[in-house]
Amino acid sequence: MDEPLSEWTLLAEYFANCRDGTGCRKGCQAAEDTNVPDKPDKPRLAEVLGVEVDKKFRISGSSDRFWVDKYGVANAEKMGDEDAAVWVMFAINHPNNIVRSCLTEAELAICKAVGAKWVSRDNGLSVAVLWMDKPHLTDSGYEGGTVAAEIYGKHFLCVRPGDCICVEEAGGK
Q1: CB 53: neighbour CB atoms within 10 A?
Q2: Is the pLDDT of residue 34 over 80?
Q3: Which DSSP string do the residues of 19-69 spell out, in sequence order?
């Protein structure tokens, strides 16, 4: 007697046979959805994460950089596919941990004018700190780098408290 097929095997077989609307058991046919474009503008994963295709982003807690390719596959620079998938699943469930490149042209101009390569915002402060070299995170905030400037007010608001972003990654190449 044959072993019963697992639910996953049955689902995989069902979707493999039903993709083009043929081969379904029980005589069903895949319905055409006229609302789905032939070629989506952006893969669903990129939409869910709120990132652009092939544009790198970070996830707080990881030192790696991630991106979603045009096929909707999550990639990472240093880690393997399985580890990258775990981090991306974490980001889907905790979107506040996604660090997107977000500096405006005016903010990039400020960084260039003072020679800043990194921007951080300390917890609870309304000041963005522009760094000439990468600082390290301590219990009291970012330290150890050379401060180029401190900016008060409504600039660099995309840098969340506790984050430090690279100006080059944010578009200031």
Answers
A1: 15
A2: no
A3: TTS-S-GGG--PPP-TTS-SS-SS-HHHHHHT--TT--EEETT--SEEEE-
Residue 91, SS3 per DSSP: helix
Per-domain boundaries in the chain: 44-99, 105-166
Which two structure tokens, joined as six digits, stand for 58? 């970070």
Q: Are strands 74-76 and 127-131 parallel, antiparallel or unpaired?
A: unpaired
Q: For 113-129, how does the pLDDT look when each residue is reduced to its tens digit (9 = 90+)? A: 999 888 887 666 678 88
pLDDT in tens, 83-104: 888 999 999 999 888 877 667 7
Alpha carbon distance 134, 109 (integer Å): 19
Which pTM value belongs to this model?
Answer: 0.47
Contact 128, 159 (CB under 8 A): yes
